[in-house]
Amino acid sequence: MAVSIREHINALSDGELRAMLRRDYLRRLIQYQTTVEAMRQKYGMNYEEFVGRNIIAEKNFSWEVESNSHD
Hints:
By secondary structure, the chain is an all-alpha fold. It has one domain (5-70). Helix content is 77%, strand content 0%. The protein contains 5 helices and no strands. It has helices spanning 5-11, 14-43, 47-52, 55-58, 63-70. The radius of gyration is 19 Å and the shape is elongated. The termini are far apart.
């Protein structure tokens, strides 16, 4: 019989759950930091400058630039 996700989570100890959440948090943080650094290198500025200079409009609202802004 298959165990539901809820049952699996309920079976975890507090320590196991904390460790799992911490790993996921760190994985996401690294992913976000990597994205921020890639965009900083690509555009030669941080996000605040990117928004302040209205780079999306400057680049004629291209899909790539708008997508990068969302990332």
